[in-house]
Design brief:
Strand content: under 5%
Helix content: over 70%
Shape: globular
Radius of gyration: 20 Å
Structural class: mainly alpha
Number of helices: 15
Low-confidence stretches: 189-196, 390-403
Distance between the termini: 33 Å
Mean pLDDT: 83
């Protein structure tokens, strides 16, 4: 019962969190640009700053969740996100937009995957933990599928400001009661679950594989954030209608879910670390298909390869960190990987806008994302080989342990 309640709540809150605070912005980017008359660099700069704030707060949030119950903190974050969402709908000055999104960035640190993974990792054991992480990501992977078209439809009917009001209200209605009701202290399991002796954060960060793994997901995060914000605008520039481009963005989420649904079967054949190498590389191949042919066929190939791989990488990262370093300090250790990755990702929307403005068109910048994906796959492979003593497919925990 505790597991079911936890999974249902975190699935819903994470889906709505990503849908409103991440995917909606890319759909509303061009309507905001037309209405406000601000450059795309200004608009994506505010969003990039929010992502940076979220990245910087991931570590203290992870440490908090290692030591305290999550209920009060996450509920408060949901309330603030709802209020600031309403403020976003009323902005008429760039400085106000930046201030609002600094606050929403703090809320991202509480509503995205990392807190959910930490709560699950600490409350559930073994197969129940893996099952819960998979189920949450299967549902939350539909965030773009749901909120891409929904945001486009709301913008067409109500304008971008009206769309934001509705989305902010939806965020509050879903997240506030679910956090408060579902994150009560567990009655049938300890708050902290230990599977074995666990690595201290300082010992984990002293291992070379930690930083290679971090580098791999840093580059992959940059690619994911860049595509998430710019895909709709890119397709519109290639002649796609706004609604069709939003559906394409939504389809990324659908393919993420399909990819994640095969995680258990794939993990039986390859360990999570080796699987991670493959999925990071496949992301780049998918983007290459998009650049070569931004037609229906090319976009379909992109969606299948990129979407499935992007979905799987969320599970491989969460699983590898727990396998290598244990669960007692999972919040702190995973938060460092997530935070460093998200800092890189936070620069992606602004950096990509600047690069496109510099070179004059999108294709060279997208080819750069292909290269980053392939480098991330190579770094992941080096990390796994280092952790297993040079033998691929056999990751082992770092040798330094807490007492």
């Amino acid at each position: 019962m505790e597991e079911r309640r936890l999974v249902l709540a975190l699935s819903a809150t994470t889906t709505v969190g990503y849908g409103v605070l991440f995917y909606a912005y890319g759909v509303l980017l061009l309507p905001m640009e037309r209405d406000l008359g601000w450059s795309r660099s200004v608009l994506t700069g505010a969003f990039s700053l929010a992502l940076l704030v979220a990245a910087l707060l991931t570590i203290p949030v992870g440490r908090w969740l290692d030591r305290h119950p999550p209920r009060t903190l996450l509920t408060a974050g949901a309330v603030v996100a709802c209020v600031l969402g309403g403020a976003w709908s009323q902005v008429r000055d760039p400085a106000v937009l930046f201030v609002v999104w600094v606050g929403l960035g703090a809320c991202m640190a509480l509503l995205f995957y990392e807190p959910a993974f930490t709560i699950i990792t600490k409350r559930l054991r073994g197969s129940a933990r893996h099952r819960a992480v998979t189920q949450v990501t299967l549902v939350a992977g539909l965030a773009s599928t749901i909120f891409g078209p929904l945001t486009s439809a709301l913008e067409s009917a109500l304008g971008w400001r009206g769309a934001v009001v509705v989305l902010a209200a939806l965020l509050g209605i879903v997240t506030v009661p679910l956090f408060w009701l579902a994150l009560r202290p567990p009655t049938d399991a300890p708050e902290l679950v230990l599977d074995h002796d666990d690595t201290l954060p300082r010992d984990a960060m002293a291992s070379p594989q930690f930083w290679m793994l971090t580098g791999a997901y840093l580059l992959s995060a940059f690619v994911t954030y860049a595509i998430g914000v710019h895909l709709v605008a890119y397709l519109q520039g290639e002649g796609w209608r706004s609604g069709h481009a939003a559906v394409a963005l939504g389809s990324v989420g659908l393919l993420q879910v399909i990819g994640r649904s095969g995680f258990a079967r794939l993990a039986e054949r390859r360990d999570a670390g080796a699987l991670g190498t493959w999925v990071l590389g496949v992301k780049g191949i998918g983007i290459a298909a998009l650049v070569v042919s931004p037609t229906l066929v090319g976009v379909a190939v992109f969606l299948v390869l990129y979407g499935a791989a992007n979905g799987l990488q969320t599970l491989t990262r969460a699983t590898v960190i727990a396998d290598l370093y244990g669960t007692a300090h999972y919040g702190a250790i995973s938060a460092v990987v997530s935070s460093v990755s998200a800092i890189a990702g936070s620069t992606a929307p602004f950096a990509m806008s600047g690069a496109i403005e510099l070179v004059g068109h999108d294709e060279p910048v997208l080819w750069g994302l292909v290269g980053l994906s392939l480098v991330s796959a190579a770094l992941n492979e080096l990390a796994i080989r280092s952790a297993s003593g040079g033998v691929p497919g056999t990751p082992r925990p770092a040798p330094s342990r807490s007492g």
